[in-house]
Amino acid sequence: MFAFFRHLIAWYAHVPSDIPRGDARIYIGAKLGYTAGVILHSSMVPVFFHLDQLVLGYYNVASTVISVAAFMLHVRGRPAPAFIMITSEVSVATVLATVYMGLEPGFFLFMLIGALYTPLAAFLTLRVRGTIMALMTVGFVALTVYGIHVAPVQPIPLGWVTMFAVVNAATVALLIVSVILTYHTAVDRAETALEAEYAKSEALLHNIMPPAVAARLKENPEVIADSHKPVTILFADIVGFTDMASRSSPDALVKLLNNIFSRFDMLVEEIGLEKIKTIGDAYMVVAGLPEDREDHAQATARLALHMMTATEAAARETGERLQIRVGIHSGDVIAGVIGQRKFAYDIWGDTVNVAARMESTGIAGRIQITPDTAELLRDGFDLEARGEIEVKGKGMMETFFLIREKAAMQATA
């Protein structure tokens, strides 16, 4: 017997896989409701015959059959016709009960319950739900007015009136509480889902632009363009990437890039700089925006040195001969967000071009910087003069290599 009830409970708790998770509670509730309808109507048949209410007795026989049919339709994946069938049956039952026995037994209240439950039937169109709610509401009001002004066709004894009134009132109260709890659960679930989606969108937005810029963009979705001075820009590029791509599978290549750039991302976050973008195997970072930062050059220099160390670690772990070439320049830039689709935070100006040239004309495993950046780093970092090199668009330019931070050198001494 215990095993039978366990299997029965499991069957009622089962929800088909094609039913959305949010509708599972309503699906199970409908199965229980149709079952309760079958039990209720079948048990009321002898009661109404005992009270000599032949019309109601025969109708409850029909109601039992209708409830079974609705139950079968529901579990076979046709909830819409099942709901309409049972709603029509309940409407007729409440009309007959009120006409024959009056308002006092409280059967007319079930018309109101039908109106309250209809919005939960998400498998119906809004128009159908609205029509059912309107009809049930009008029916409730009409029955109330009718019962007040017209005497019942076949009154029942006072004791039965009292019993029906108590049972029906308790049932209606329980159903109303059930509706309220269902609505409350649905609202909580919807709010939780909205909060989760909002958090995802915020995280995504903050991944492609600084939080301060994202906040401005949400307040005013126009073009954002700010002049920043001074800032320091870093470009890093993986040496020999083209050759590496020719002898590696796409999957292995992407994993390698992800390995290296993930290390760089962690360093950027730790030092508090702003990653602008990656273009293929090139990595671009800026310090000093969107908020001004006095140590923009020093922070970028530390990042470059840590990036060299991180690349060496990745080379040891992967067995690849990995080296990066880094270029750094300091100066003024324009920063902002442009476009309406796939917009991104970016920076423009001659400073960007020069920083890119420092990377492209650099040497594998070295960090090349301009005189502007070198001037900002002399007190705290060891530099090595490279001499003059040809820089596209600038002619001959003296450049330097960043070697180490003096504080770090003193700490190891």
Kindly summarize this structure in a few lines.
With 413 residues, the protein is α+β, with helices and mostly antiparallel strands. The chain has helices at 2-13, 24-50, 54-75, 79-101, 109-117, 126-149, 158-208, 211-219, 241-246, 250-271, 296-318, 350-360, 371-377, 406-412, and strands spanning 224-238, 274-279, 282-287, 324-338, 344-348, 367-369, 381-391, 395-405.
Explained architecture:
With 413 residues, this protein is of the alpha+beta class. The chain has two domains: 200 residues, no CATH class; 189 residues, Nucleotide cyclase, GGDEF domain (Alpha-Beta Plaits, 2-Layer Sandwich). 61% of the residues lie in helices and 17% in strands. Strands 1, 2, 3, 4, 5, 6, 7 and 8 form an eight-stranded mixed beta sheet that branches. Strand 4 and strand 5 form a beta hairpin. Helix 4 runs parallel beside helix 6. The radius of gyration is 38 Å and the shape is elongated. The mean pLDDT is 84.
Structural class: alpha+beta
- The value of Rg in angstroms is 38 Å
Roughly how many Å apart are the termini?
A: 82 Å
Fraction of residues in H or I helices: 55-70%
Sequence of secondary-structure elements: HHHHHHHHEHHEEHEEHEHEEH
Mean pLDDT: 84
Let me know the largest β-sheet. 8 strands, mixed
Q: Care to count the β-strands?
A: 8
Q: Which regions contain 5 or more consecutive residues with pLDDT less than 50?
A: none
How many domains? The number is 2
Compute the number of helices: 14
Oligomer class: single chain
Shape: elongated
Portion in beta strands:
15-25%
